[in-house]
From TrEMBL:
Protein name: NADH-quinone oxidoreductase
EC annotation from Swiss-Prot or TrEMBL: 7.1.1.-
Lineage, uppermost ranks: Bacteria, Pseudomonadati, Campylobacterota, Epsilonproteobacteria, Campylobacterales
Organism: Helicobacter aurati
First-level EC class: translocase
Similarity comment: Belongs to the complex I 30 kDa subunit family.
Catalytic activity line of the entry: a quinone + NADH + 5 H(+)(in) = a quinol + NAD(+) + 4 H(+)(out)
Length: 268
């Protein structure tokens, strides 16, 4: 069967005849009470106020207030939604001066086959903190640290709220839509400016902040396998034979003579 051929005339000009600002329609949203998630909404609405709810692509979404977040997640965990698979935020500061936090929950119970996945959302204002849920879901510990590192959102009562991806002295939060695409141009001078001063930039040079960078001439922090030298010594191209020996055990490797090899014709 021959694949259907598409007209190729004026392909380069096609972009000029399409709507650049076209927005695809949203996927259909079904009221939660008309789906299998109705039992979840009934149990949740008895304890907290649900601002909005719907089911989209087989997944329920519940909007709650910030003050009801902990209680909502406690109830859902008691309903056997005991896996927090994802937690992050969306920057809507330019739209309504808010962040939208979402918590993706999953249940692997066979009885939840028709309603396995749901999402809890809440909105907070800029510079507003939110309670940590790490006491309910341990997986939230690192997710909240990443959210703080990327968006600057602070989580109350978090056991160790520090940056997790960026250096501790990094300025700004990279996933904010207001963050410059070229990044922080001063990142290469943080410690130089702090220790020596800006006037020493040309003398000291920019910092190397790439954690994956390997300096072949640095024998203090790196070792060249087969060409080892004492710590801090000048690198050498002298090749050393690499052998391995278990401590306090008979030798497991030794150099066998190759001048008179023996060929085995069968296994012994």
């Amino acid at each position: 069967m021959i694949r259907k051929q598409q007209p190729k005339k004026d392909v380069q000009k096609k972009v000029y005849h399409t709507d650049t600002f076209y927005q695809p329609p949203l996927t259909p949203r079904t009221p939660t009470m008309q789906t299998a998630f109705c039992v979840v909404e009934e149990a949740l609405s008895q304890e907290v106020e649900i601002l909005k709810s719907y089911v989209e692509i087989g997944q329920a979404v519940f909007y709650v207030k910030k003050d009801s977040l902990l209680k909502s997640l406690e109830i859902l965990k008691s309903l056997q939604y005991d896996i927090l698979s994802e937690m992050s935020a969306i920057d809507n500061l330019a739209i309504d001066d808010s962040f939208e936090l979402f918590y993706q929950l999953t249940s692997h119970q066979q009885s939840h086959k028709a309603r396995r996945r749901l999402r809890v959302k809440c909105r907070i204002r800029d510079n507003e903190s939110v309670p940590s849920v790490s006491s309910i879901f341990s997986a939230a510990n690192w997710s909240e640290r990443e959210c703080y590192d990327m968006f600057g959102i602070k989580f109350e009562n978090h056991p160790f709220l520090k940056r997790i991806l960026m250096p501790i002295d990094w300025v700004g939060f990279p996933l904010l839509k207001s963050y410059p695409l070229k990044g922080d141009e001063f990142a290469s001078w943080y410690e130089v400016d702090k220790i020596f001063g800006r006037e020493y930039r040309d003398i000291v040079g920019p910092e190397q902040r790439d954690s994956a960078r390997v300096d072949r001439d640095d024998s203090i922090n790196f070792a060249r396998i087969g060409k080892e030298v004492p710590k801090g010594a000048e690198p050498s191209d002298c090749i050393h034979e690499v052998t391995y020996q278990e401590k306090d055990k008979p030798p497991i490797l030794k150099k066998f003579p190759t001048s008179n090899p023996k060929i085995l014709d069968k296994r012994t």
